[in-house]
Amino acid sequence: MIQDIGPHQFHCAFVSRVPTTRDYLFLYHNEQILMNRRRGTLDFPHIGELVMSGQAVYLFSMDDIAFFTHLDPFEEPPEGYEWMPLSAFRTYEPGWLAFAGITGSHLYHWYDRHRFCGRCTAPMRPSETERALQCDRCGLIDYPRISPAIIVAITDGDRLLLSRYAGRTYGNYALIAGFCEIGETLEATIRREVMEEVGLRVKNLRYFASQPWAFSDSLLVGFFADLDGDPAITLDRNELSEAVWLTRDEIPKDGSTISLTRTMINAFIDGSYPR
To answer: Which residue, 29, 55, 58, 182, has fewest beta-carbon neighbours within 10 Å?
Structure first.
């Protein structure tokens, strides 16, 4: 999956760190990231390559290399640079830098959307002791947003339920998924989402794995579940364009390995999923 970056080590704890010339600078704008083509390949700029106003904000480290951002990047890239859509991180190589680039966008989004206090409208400032933004006027402290969401692979014997999203550019088969609502357990979210989207009941929920998914500022939690009762599908066409039961041999092949969704589908195909 996208977070599987070994042998590299991801260090997400907040520290007060001074940037060096070997550290990376991630600049984001309109769901894009600035890339450097001046070295002949598409790469991230390093600290010192670009003249920026204000102070660089520390994001995290990989091994002993740190990653920083600026909250007010320019809109027009200088010569030799270009904007790359964040969606490109689904296939960008090397994988450890793809994980860094998309994870940095998660933090940048939080910083960018909380420049002002949501209670008294005063400017927020980064805390000097933890990953937080604080308001000096009213004392409000804001922490990074992480939205929990479930993914559930529903099995009926040797068949797996696969679906396609409605109204999205992503057209491959997916599993039933959805965000947790206030007051819900993960298990309750699964039962609600499955009933809402395909009109089915499930039982025997088994945890499979989790995944940080910065494309939607989420923490995904994957489960397998057995069909409970009638397999007839009642499709919510506002959410899905299709939902079908497929056997292992009928499931289309997909070489992608970055998502929890595909990892779970592959686990069903090869029989390694929890029973």
So the answer is: 182
